[in-house]
């Protein structure tokens, strides 16, 4: 089993356009033996983040997904294998309807290893308790360690930023989600 992150610009001006884009994506993904785990769009409707699960090896699945999405007239910026941290797939699927409110992208340092990242995550995650108004939901860390995507529920952006400070994790891009 592999998890893949698909990033796509939407070029949408209205939510209906994003919904139409997602409607084109679903069959393209499922025809390739994959399943959409979650699809999140930024509040400004400009970027779409889709996580899919596939029974195939990541590299082969990535290429076939790119081809299927191109055939469905979906612009793909990137497809990358990811690892889910802080939740399991059943939890993500169960919470799919609610969805997190914020997404933080962190461009990881070049010298970071996966082992060091996971150790750091384990050590720092309990510190979120210092910011009880913020609920950390999950992270998708790219297997190439280019970046990670961290999902949160919080009343406002400032609370998410404070939570990131508490765990000593930078914010390279912060998106409110629609």
Question: Layout of SSEs?
Answer:
Blueprint: E1 2-9, H1 15-30, E2 35-41, E3 47-54, H2 58-71, E4 78-85, H3 89-94, E5 102-107, H4 114-124, E6 135-142, E7 147-153, H5 157-166, E8 173-176
Antiparallel strand pairs: 1-3, 1-4, 2-3, 4-6, 5-7, 5-8, 6-7
Features of the shown structure:
8 strands, Alpha-Beta Plaits, globular, 5 helices, 178 residues, alpha+beta, eight-stranded antiparallel beta sheet, 2 domains
**Overall shape:** globular
Stated plainly, the CATH topology of the largest domain is called Alpha-Beta Plaits
User: Which architecture of the largest domain per CATH?
Assistant: 2-Layer Sandwich
N- to C-terminal distance: 29 Å
Rg of Cα set: 16 Å
Number-wise, the strands total: 8
Biggest beta-sheet profile:
8 strands, antiparallel
- List the uncertain runs: none
Mean pLDDT reading: 93
Can you identify the CATH superfamily of the largest domain?
ORF SCO4226, nickel-binding ferredoxin-like monomer
Structural class: alpha+beta
* Number of DSSP helical runs: 5
Write down the domain tally.
2
Tell me roughly what share of residues is in helical segments. 25-40%
- What fraction of residues sit in β-strands? 25-35%
